Amino acid sequence: MVFYLRRYAGSYITLVLVALSAVVSTRYLYWRATETLNLTTLVNSTFSIGLLVAEMYAWLILVMGLFQSIWPLNRESTPLPEDESLWPTVDVLIPTYNEPLSVVRTTVMAAMLIEWPDAKKKVYILDDGRRDEFRAFAEEVGVGYITRSDNKFAKAGNINNAFKRISGEFVAIFDCDHMATSTFLKQTMGGFLTDPKLALVQTPHHFLTPDPFERNLGSFRRIPNEGELFYGLVQDGNDFWNASFFCGSCAVLRRSALDEIGGLATDTVTEDAHTSLNLHRKGYNSAYIRVTMSAGLATETLGAHVKQRMRWARGMAQVFRLDCPLLGKGLTFAQRLCYTNAIFHFLYGFPRLFFLLSPLTYLFFENSIINAPAWVIAVYALPHLIMGFIANSRLQGEFRHSFWNEVYEAALAWYIMWPTLGAMINPKKGKFDVTAKGGYIERGFFDWKIGMPYVVLFLLNAFGLAAGFLRMFWFNTEDWDTALLNIAWTSYNLVMIGAVIAVAMETRQIRKGWRVEKELPAGLLLASGQQFECETLDYAMTGVRLKVSDLVSVKPGESLTLYLFREAQRFEFPAEVVVNNANELRLKFNELTLEQERDLVAATLSRPDAWINWIKVREEVDHPLRGFSELLGFSRMGVKRMKLATRKAA
Fold first, then answer.
1. Quick one: angle between helices 624-649 and 374-396, nearest 10?
2. Taking CA 219 as the corner, what is the angle to CA 215 and CA 222, rounded to the nearest 5 degrees?
3. Which residues pair with 546 in a beta bridge?
4. Are 558 and 602 in contact (CB under 8 A)?
5. Closest CA relative to residue 204, chosen from 68, 345, 399
6. CA distance 321 to 344
7. What is the largest CA-CA distance in the chain?
8. Are both 323 and 358 inside the same structural domain?
């Protein structure tokens, strides 16, 4: 019946599949808790109860996640009144600490181009690095510059310090690498004027560069990345329950509401989610508009990615200990569940490692931590697993392919387990670590420092697999079915770990700047006076790649003028030919004036449609079997990379 139902579209069919998944999983967990514990020895008891706890955690996350995402709101922007005199004042804040000016200046220019009455909008650079070049740049482009004598409370302290110097009714906050489109405020501010209790409007975080998983696996814009599920489904589901939370950037907040709660939260290192929790406790509303209106830079290396996620995990554990959403006043039942699920999500370190190691207890030591015949385990477990994959694929298929959640968790489990444990014991411990952006990788290398736990896990499971076949055919042959079950489990773990190892092989990233694939109308004016129509294939702040329909007779080194268009506007830029290859031209910009640099941002990054449909339409929707096939390919890649890295190390 389930395989028949999943063929049909519709929200109610989705509800049925989700409900069936919850029922089957609950039935499995009840059976596990009441009939399968092996308490014969201390070792068996420890591993048997440990595995049950891990499965209970997975069941809890599944059920809360299904509840959280069951009915995405898909909110539309509220129109603003035609009379601009009724529009409120907005301060646009761009906090920065140690990022290079080359990253920040484009963000500032994009912020300056946001369409809003000049008298009602001010842009500020909040420089916690206290750098003269940033002050000079702010003066040159005509934006505010605010700094302070210390870095207390990091980003939250930086923004709270700015509140002493600004007076706008609302604040729009952008990380220093998040470049906004020109219509950002027009699409986010309307709701504030119709709902006086609306304190937060959050928009998606979109990244124009690949994260370490996408770059190292070559999956950029082919397979949904880690953030697409959260910003594509989870936040939209939160919005239905009035539980969307602040993500630190690409958001607008009501200043009076922030003043009421004492500014951004400083008790934890996740000031964003904690701030929205404080706002919801005070009875304020939040909104999420799932329209991409800005773009930023993803972390360049797996090490930086792990460091960032460790901070998020530590901060959410701190929130749980210091301001548990399950307790206290001011939250609805649904809001409590949404916040709790967001916090519990980061506690997967121990459960994930337990799943990766549990079959080894039988394969190495013949300890049966599930006290039941193999065929009975299969009867209960297979429907639970299959229904979980089907329900999640139905809900998440557009935003995450099957099995990828396990890959992300396996990659981070070892690293987030310790900061979450530490925060649970001592929630005051830990500091805010800034995520580096704008770097490059000159040579590909295997990150042994980050990758060593994955290699150890892979080897343990590989030896366990070999031991399993020995047990199946030479030892304990009377329990061949139990050995087969654990062999299958271990094989699955090896596939997961193999894909993670592939991510630990950092591929070259020699381009210091980003480049956006986008088809935009363009034109060329040669020194001879000839003109050609063309379109961009990709662009950057340093140059463009063009598709031309006619043969353009220019040689590398020749100068010309490039035209880019935005509606009725035409912008021109001096450029030089780098490559002329048939119908494709590569140009680099000559030194641009400040005005020309701002025009380039206006013609590209600041366009209202800059990120609409930027991710290519994927030809195939998610299917669990297809997702597993993708995973097998990446796992084989990981094994090859591990062998190569081992030879080089030797």
1. 100
2. 140
3. 536, 585
4. no
5. 399
6. 12
7. 90
8. no
**136's tokens:** 């000079």
Contact between 181 and 174 under an 8 Å Cβ cutoff? The reply is: no
Task: Output the CA torsion 127→132→133→134 (10° steps).
Answer: 20
DSSP letter assigned to residue 19: H
Residue 186 falls inside a structural domain: yes
Does 271 lie in the same domain as 186? yes
Q: Are residues 166 and 223 in the same domain?
A: yes
**Tens digit of pLDDT for each residue in 105-139?**
999 999 999 999 999 999 999 999 999 999 999 99
Gap between the Cα atoms of 330 and 41, Å rounded:
47
In the predicted structure, residue 617 carries a pLDDT above the cut 70? no
Which pLDDT value is given to residue 1? Answer: 61
Residue 67's SS3 state is helix
Q: Residue 125 corresponds to which tokens in the numbers above?
A: 């650079």
What tokens appear for 464 in the block? Answer: 């366990």
Mean pLDDT taken over the chain: 90
Which residues are tagged catalytic? 128, 272
Q: Which two tokens stand for residue 245?
A: 């939370």
Calculate mean pLDDT across residues 307-314: 92
My answer on whether 278 and 146 are in the same domain is yes
Domain span at residue 300?
Answer: 86-346
Evaluate whether 507 touches 521 at the Cβ level (below 8 Å): no
3-class SS string, 282-306: CCCEEEECCCCCEEECCCCCHHHHH
Do 385 and 276 fall within a single domain?
Answer: no
Beta-strand ranges (E) seen in 14-137 are 90-96, 121-127
Cα–Cα dist 298/300, whole Å: 6
* 420: nearest Cα among 547, 316, 531: 316
AA letter at 495: V
Side chain identity at residue 235, one-letter code: Q
For 300, the token pair is: 């360049």
Q: Which of 68-82, 486-500, 546-560 has the lowest mean pLDDT?
A: 546-560
Whether the pLDDT of residue 619 is over 60: the answer is: no
257 and 211: one domain?
A: yes
In this prediction the pTM is 0.92
The angle formed by the CA atoms of residues 509, 440 and 605, to the nearest 5 degrees, is 85
State the DSSP H helix or E strand holding residue 635, giving kind and residue range, or none if neither: helix 624-649
String of DSSP letters for 144-163: EEE--S--TTHHHHHHHHHH
Secondary structure (3-state) at 264: coil
Angle at the Cα of 30 (from 29 to 33), degrees rounded to 5?
A: 85
Q: Which of these three, 313, 346, 379, is where a domain ends?
A: 346
Give me 648's structure tokens: 């080089």
Confidence of residue 8 (pLDDT cuts 50, 70, 90): low
